[in-house]
């Protein structure tokens, strides 16, 4: 008996989806890998400020915090420029390469040509602002590539899997390179020479990632793939009003923001070094364990991401988000009770307790990875829904609007963490791994590490109750978009869409 071939998503849904080749997705997301290389360099910025420009440590922290405000301002402006730009030779590649060039020149100015030259704080701030402009340009264009590459619901989650792979492995590898290769060659000190050598090597490596990303998007980087659904004779310019309408009239985007912001706040808080000290150093008694476990969790996390992509492709981003958010919430609740019932200092001394703790922790980390994959697919769905709702294709604007909220939340993370730690007595000194555990430390740590994420997941579940872009809803969206494009193609001359 002949085997019946499996239906494609296009055949099953009655929609002619746009699909990408697997290698195109893998290459396109290398833009994220390039960005992660610069992320590692920014992590060295505080050493550069002090060693290369004589900026005090306290002032250095203020500079990096204040410039985040500028980052939040420049993102929507660059997004509007990208969405309004029409070029025949590739809009994505233009802004990806242009952004890479600007941020690379800024890094070389800061780390290589201007460092230790007596240029001072004004030069540093000016060039760092230039770096932010290049970063925003490159990152927004890179994040647009996924929604443009494919609108196949079975394939879209795969984009986030590749982005996650680069987000985890690239910074881990390049951090190891800087600490194991470059640092020992300079007496295990973050000297100007060490930072220069690191920056030059990293910029060259990032170029390789960037060029491969451009190869990945080359086939779809055409004006027709960024077309609005407005009449070509109508005004289709993108403005701040479109961003305002996105925030006020796009209900799915509002719920997506609530879900993403609540989860992000919990993630940023628990990732603070002071919170890691409380959990791994004081409560469990092994500070190095947290770093080791985060590295160990990468591989199972990627496996969960792959499985989550298949689940999201079959069931839709909403179903995946709700299902796996429940799993995260339940596992976090079990871990909280576990730590309340068991003496935390006894966990590492017992094989059974250690296995139980690590297994629950790795499962929660893996489940949250699935939510991350679903989140990426959900943003792509919202871009297409906005095209259906307003007639305007706004991938850069949607990305930038989300990034603004993301940056605001990220900036609150350290403040919330330090404020919470101050409430339990650490007002003049920071917690140290050698401190003795206490009930206030236990309760506050569990609230910040598990309780806050639980609250974030509850917010996600509430927001998703009214989110209507489920699997069936997106099929209808794609059908309407396809019908309107076909109607425009019949009434407008070829290539007239803007």
UniProtKB/TrEMBL annotation:
GO terms for molecular function: symporter activity. GO terms for cellular component: plasma membrane. One of its GO terms (biological process) is carbohydrate transport. Keywords: Membrane, Transmembrane, Transmembrane helix. The chain crosses the membrane at residues 25-47, 53-82, 94-113, 119-140, 161-183, 199-218, 265-283, 289-309, 321-341, 347-364, 408-429, 441-464. InterPro entries: MFS_2, MFS_trans_sf. The keyword Protein biosynthesis does not apply. SUPFAM superfamilies: MFS general substrate transporter. This is MFS transporter. It comes from Microbacterium stercoris. The lineage of its organism: Bacteria, Bacillati, Actinomycetota, Actinomycetes, Micrococcales.
């Amino acid at each position: 008996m002949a085997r019946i071939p499996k239906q494609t998503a296009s055949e099953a849904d009655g929609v002619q989806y746009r699909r990408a080749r697997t290698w195109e997705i893998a290459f396109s997301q290398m833009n994220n890998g390039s960005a992660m290389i610069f992320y590692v360099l920014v992590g060295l910025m505080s050493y550069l400020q002090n060693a290369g420009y004589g900026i005090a440590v306290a002032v250095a922290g203020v500079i990096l915090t204040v410039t985040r405000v500028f980052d939040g301002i420049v993102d929507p402006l660059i997004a509007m420029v990208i969405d309004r730009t029409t070029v025949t030779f590739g809009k994505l590649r233009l802004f990806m390469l242009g952004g890479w060039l600007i941020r690379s020149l800024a890094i070389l100015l800061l780390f290589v040509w201007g460092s230790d030259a007596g240029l001072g704080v004004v030069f540093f701030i000016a060039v760092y602002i230039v770096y932010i402009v290049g970063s925003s340009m490159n990152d927004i264009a890179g994040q647009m590539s996924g929604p443009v590459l494919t609108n196949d619901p079975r394939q879209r989650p795969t984009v986030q899997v590749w982005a996650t792979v680069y987000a985890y492995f690239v910074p881990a590898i390049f951090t190891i390179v800087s600490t194991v290769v470059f640092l020992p060659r300079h007496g295990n000190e973050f000297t100007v020479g060490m930072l220069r050598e690191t920056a030059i090597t990293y910029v060259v490596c990032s170029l390789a990632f960037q060029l491969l990303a451009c190869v990945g998007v080359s086939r779809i980087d055409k004006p027709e793939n960024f077309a609005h659904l407005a009449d070509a004779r109508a005004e289709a310019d993108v403005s701040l009003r479109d961003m305002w309408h996105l925030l006020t009239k796009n209900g799915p985007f509002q719920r997506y923001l609530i879900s993403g912001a609540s989860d992000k706040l919990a993630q940023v808080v628990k990732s603070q070094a002071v919170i890691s000290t409380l959990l791994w150093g004081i409560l469990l008694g092994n500070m190095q364990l947290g770093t080791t476990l985060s590295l160990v969790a990468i591989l199972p996390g990627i496996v969960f991401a792959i499985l989550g992509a298949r689940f999201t492709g079959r069931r839709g981003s909403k179903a995946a988000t709700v299902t796996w958010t429940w799993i995260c919430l339940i596992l976090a609740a079990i871990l909280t009770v576990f730590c309340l019932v068991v003496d935390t200092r006894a966990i590492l001394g017992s094989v059974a307790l250690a296995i139980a703790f690590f297994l629950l922790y790795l499962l929660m980390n893996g489940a949250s990875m699935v939510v991350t994959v679903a989140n990426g697919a959900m943003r792509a769905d919202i871009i297409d829904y906005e095209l259906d709702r307003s007639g305007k294709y706004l991938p850069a604007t949607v990305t930038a609007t989300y990034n603004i909220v993301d940056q605001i939340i990220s900036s609150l993370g350290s403040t919330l963490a330090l404020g919470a730690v101050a409430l339990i007595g650490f007002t003049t000194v920071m917690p140290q791994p050698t401190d003795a555990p206490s009930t206030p430390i236990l309760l506050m740590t569990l609230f910040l590490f598990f309780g806050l994420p639980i609250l974030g997941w509850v917010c996600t579940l509430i927001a998703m109750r009214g989110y209507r872009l489920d699997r069936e809803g997106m099929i209808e969206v794609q059908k309407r978009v396809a019908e309107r494009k076909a109607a425009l193609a019949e009434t407008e001359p070829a290539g007239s869409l803007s």
